[in-house]
Amino acid sequence: MIAEFYPWIKALHVVAVISWMAGLLYLPRLFVYHCRAEDVRHAKTFQVMEQRLLGVIMRPAMIASWGLGLMLLVTPGLISWEGDYWIYVKLAAVFGMTGFHVVLARHARAFEAGRNARPERYFRLINEVPTVLMIIIVIMVIVRPF
C-alpha cells in the first residue's frame, strides 16, 4: 500500500527537508544579528523573528521530515538493512541535524530570556554544521558509497 504513494511521500519529504534546512541555516544568522542589536527594540524584533522561524517553519518542517522519512524507511524494497551501510550514516547525520535543531531552540530561549552568553563568532561558526550534515546526507542518499 505505502509503495504506491512512494513518489508523493518522497516529494513531500524533500520539500519538508528543504524547509527545515532553510531554517537551520538562517536561525544562526539571526542570532549573529541579535548579538549585534544595539537597543531593546531591535533585540525584540530578532526575538520575534527567531520564535516565528522556529515555531512556524522549522518545527513543523522537522516533524514532517521525520514522519515522511520514516514512511520511506518502511517502504518495502527500498533499503537492505543488512547490506546498505549508507543508511546508517545518513540516519546518524539526521540525528545530528535534529540535535542541532534542539541546540538552536535552546539558544533562542536564552535570547528570549536575556541570558545569551555566546559571542557572535560562535553563531558564525555553528552556522556551518547543517551544511556539513546536509552534504553527508545527500551523498549517502544519492551516491550510496557503501
Short description:
This protein has 146 residues and is mainly α. It has five helices and no strands. The mean pLDDT is 96.
Question: Helix and strand layout, with pairings?
Answer:
Blueprint: H1 6-36, H2 40-73, H3 86-112, H4 120-126, H5 129-142
Helix pairs in contact: 1-2, 1-3, 1-4, 2-3, 3-5
Helix content: over 70%
The total strand number stands at 0
- Tally of alpha and pi helices: 5
Q: Gap between N and C termini, in Å?
A: 29 Å
What can be said about the biggest beta sheet?
none
SS-based class: mainly alpha
Keywords:
146 residues; mainly alpha; 5 helices; elongated
Textual characterization of the structure:
This protein has 5 helices and no strands. Helix 1 runs antiparallel to helix 2 and helix 1 runs antiparallel to helix 4. The protein is 77% helix and 0% strand. It has one domain. The longest helix has 34 residues. The model has no long low-confidence stretch (mean pLDDT 96). With 146 residues, it is mainly alpha-helical. The radius of gyration is 18 Å and the shape is elongated.
